[in-house]
Structures are given as structure tokens and as C-alpha cells.
Amino acid sequence: MPTPKSKIGFGALALLLLFISTPAMSKISYRESAKKKYLSEKVREMFYHAYDNYIAHAFPHDELKPLTKTYTDSLSELGNLKLEHLPQNYNGSALTLIESLSSLVVMGNNTEFERAVLWLSENLTFDVDARINLFECNIRALGGLLSAHILATDSTNRLVLGMYKNQLLSLAEDLGRRFLCAFDTPTGLPYAWINLKYGVMENETTETSTSGCGSLILEMGALSRLTGDPRFEAASLRALRKLWSMRSSLDLLGTTLDVVTGQWIEYSSGIGAGVDSFYEYLMKAHVLFGSDEFWDMFHSAYLAVQKYFRHGPWYHEADMRTGKATYWQLTSLQAFWPGLQILVGDIEAANSSHREFFHVWERFGVLPERYLLDREMLHPTEKYYPLRPELAESTLYLYQATKDPWYIEVGESIVKSLNTYTKVEGGFASVKDVTTMQLEDHQHSFFLAETCKYLYLLFNDSFLANQNYIFTTEGHPFPVRSAWHEKLPETYALNNWTSAKDENQVIRASAMSLQVCPDTLTLRRNGSPSVGSACHVLDARADHRCLVDEDCGIELTTCRKRTCSLAGYCGLWLFFL
Ligand code: DMJ
């Protein structure tokens, strides 16, 4: 007797919306808003310290090396762990500038945004002999340009009138066309690597990741909607559908696959590296384009994650064929998951995982890339922290959903650590080893696109006040527009659910007391919404009595099916299996 999908997903969202728009019970104190103001200024300073140093020492190359105050043309190195086939004559694509565009708008610096748009319009070209990673180039360059184009055109006062003639969109379209050759495979799954000038290289590897095939739809879909050329959306949708068709009977996917044979290479997967944004894009594509197909995929995929990967607040990896646990590891990338859970309305689960990630952050001062949960030790070669945004991202989502001031404290602690451990004269440097806090000479572009942006929005969300946005996996905002929706679900049309407009909202019990958002768990029997978690299905009777298994629902926290005991009660009687 499963609850219809619309009730599961949108019910949870509707609860979240209800929660967000509840009338004020107590005002946010003057002290708290002063603190937020102070912290937002602190983050603004951080952003400009990173940005100004990039402009001074690295622009128009890709990324800044903050320790030596020089640059790296790293677009061709992203995802290229063995640093193979590096270009001889590539001088960068101003990657960090592209990545900074939307952050400049979020922070209200229209003058610098205009300067950057002008420079890119006149100087940027993708006709370069460089082998790049499709996924990385898509989320950073294509996403950055598209978001900036939309931001440039959605306001009359952002750019000097008449100076912008869709140049960023033309650049994005040119880049998108260069991507298309990657999809020319027997399966429609794209190659992970292409040369921007010459297309797919001879003897190119046919191995790619789940994210590499499944996280293109937001940018490529937006490109089609903006240009009217359907090829971008069609190619990425075909790839996504093919990928989804490769799921196991448990609705699980692996981590790596072959784009020619369509066979899995690595059957183990989790919610971290190589897979993370696949889940994220299913949900966000549903929000951006309104298609039920994305929701249906996301819903099944999400339930499978909660069922097979989740262990209390942690997520381990599992074999897609059997659902059996494989690797018990916490990775820094997984910290985005609670933010995604907020979009689903699964606040309780989001809160408990976020808390654990923050404890690890507090223990080390930053989040280590990989921690072995079963051996309770850091991964010997992955002790680094490359200024990643995921914890800040989830903190922003949780704060927006709950207005619990504890999340401001989390943000404050993140800001403090970043300034203490990673700030150097020439910018912000990655941490090479979290046990020694030794630094590495690299300021990743996502520090400006995501880390600073999410922290800033946590303390100052005025950018979100008048428009609903979906943030791409690289933190670039795309407005949610009814014109892009095949069918606009009511929950998105009527409310601004990326942002709580009113500061004067209910302040819930602190997340630290494990009582955050109790309202979302108030389950109503007659009438929707009837769930507090995306997978939760109530037992048929309020007293949990049953005659057959079908009378029992699905457990809120474990997403396991409850069964009817011999004594006639629903429960998780098989939990030990
Ligand atoms: C970003 O490039 C994107 O968020 C991507 O999806 C994975 N994570 C990095 C930053 O950590």
C-alpha cells in the first residue's frame, strides 16, 4: 500500500514550506542579526582576498597558486589524477573569473561583474588545443557562463545598458557544441574526456563515472532552453536515461562504467566521489524543468540510498548488485547530502548527518578528504582539505529550512577555521595534511564559486529574496521559471522555498538538542501531507496493529519496510538481517 509518489515528495516539501512560512513567534535578536552582518562582511573580505590575489597573480590563467603567487592552467588537470595528455600551448581560460561571476552578483558587486563580463566577452575562446574533463568543464565553465548570462539579463541595472549582447551565451553555446562529440558513442553515454579543439582523441579512455554521465542535465538543459537548440538537452537526457537503465534491481548504480559497452566497471558506490552530483541533478532537474521523470528517478534512487548506504547518520558504500556494504568511509564530498535532503524535506535525517560532519570538522579543524569509519583513522593518502564547500552548503540549506541559530554558529566556526588555517598573504591555500595543517599551493576555483558564496548566503540571503533559485553542483544559481516547466508543481509556484523571506520566524529548539523541526515529523493521518521523510509510509492503523505485512508502512529513519509480527504488530522485525 505504498503512498503515491506525489504525496511522498511534495508532501514533505509542503511541510517544509509550511514550516518556512509559519508566522513569527519570536524575533531574531538584534545580537543575532549583528552577528550575521559581521560574519557576512568577514566572508566578503575572504572572497575579495581570494579574488584580488587571483586577479593580481593568476588572471587570465585558470587558478591561483597562493603560496608562490603564481598560476596554474588547471582546466586540463581537473579530474586528471595522473596528469596525462597535458596541453603544450594552453594558456588558461580565466576559469576562476568565470567561476566568480555569480558570486560577484550575490555579493552585490555589479561594477566588477560588468568588468568581468566585458573582458570575457572580448577575450575568451574555447578554440584551444586542450584535453578537458567534460563533467568539470560543464559544471565550472558552462554553468558559470550560463548563470552569469541569466543574471546579466534578468536585471536592467546590473550592466550598463546596451553593453551586453548575449556574448556569454554565445560563448556557452560554442562550448556546448564542442561537448556534443563526446556523446557520439554506441550507448549515448559521453566520453569523460574531449579535446576542445579536436574532439575525442584517438584511443581515448572509454571509462567514465556515474557523475560524468548523469550530472550534465542542468547546464545542457538550460543551454537548450536559452538558445532554442534542443541538441544539448537531448544528448544529456539520453545519457541520463541510459545510465538509469543500467541500475540494478535494487535501484543502485555503480561508480564507474564503460561508455562504449555500457557495462559497469566499479560496482561499489556511495554518495561521494564519482556519484554525488548524479543524485543531486535528478532532484534539481525536477525542480528546474518540472518533469516527473526526474522525480521518479530521484525518488527510487533516494530510497535505495537510504536503505542500502545509510547507517545511522553515516553513509557507507555498497555493491549495487547485492546491497552489501563494501567500504565504510566518510568522505568530504558526502557532506553535500544533508543539503540535498533539505530539498526533499527530509530534515531530521539531514540534521543528524550534518551534525556528524561538523563534529569531524571540529575534531580536525577542517574536513579531511577521507576517513575510514571501520578503522577509525584517516585514509593514509587522503588527509587533505582542498577548501571544499560541501559542509558550508549543507549548513546554508539547514539554516534556511529551520532558522535555527545553531547553524550560524557552525558557519562562524567554518569561517574561523578557514581564516586560521588556510589564509595566506597570496590568497587561500588548500590543506595538504589535516594532521599537520601543512598547506598546498592551490586555490581551487570552487572556493570562490561555492565555499565563499554559500557562507555569504548563510549570513546574508538578500540575493534570494525575490527569486527562486536552484544552485548547480558548482554553486551557480539558475532561476526556477515557470516557462521552463513542462508542468509547474504548486509547491514551487506559490512559495519561495529556497529562501525564507522573513527574518522573524519561529526559532526552533536547537539542533544540538536533537529536536530540530519536530513539526515536520508530526504525521497527519487523514489527508496530505502525511510524511516527514521522503521514504516514510505510515502503518495502516494508528495503533500499529496489523493482520498482514501490507498493513505496515516504511520506517522513517531506516527506510526499511515494516512487517507484521505474529502478535499482530507492525515493526522492524527483520532489522538484524
Ligand atoms: C565541486 O567542483 C562540485 O561541487 C562537484 O560536484 C564536486 N565537488 C567540488 C567541490 O568540492
TrEMBL record:
- Name where it's found: Endoplasmic reticulum
- Chain coiled-coil ranges: none
Which residues participate in Ca(2+) binding? Answer: 473
- Essential cofactor(s): Ca(2+)
Q: Does the keyword Disulfide bond apply?
A: no
Q: Which InterPro entries match?
A: 6hp_glycosidase-like_sf, EDEM1/2/3, Glyco_hydro_47, Seven-hairpin_glycosidases
Molecular-function annotations in GO: calcium ion binding; mannosyl-oligosaccharide 1,2-alpha-mannosidase activity
Q: Which UniProt keywords apply?
A: Calcium, Endoplasmic reticulum, Glycoprotein, Glycosidase, Hydrolase, Metal-binding, Signal
Q: Which GO terms describe its biological process?
A: carbohydrate metabolic process; endoplasmic reticulum mannose trimming
List its EC numbers: 3.2.1.-
GO cellular component terms given for this protein? endoplasmic reticulum quality control compartment; membrane
Protein name per Swiss-Prot or TrEMBL:
alpha-1,2-Mannosidase
Lineage in the entry?
Answer: Eukaryota, Viridiplantae, Streptophyta, Embryophyta, Tracheophyta
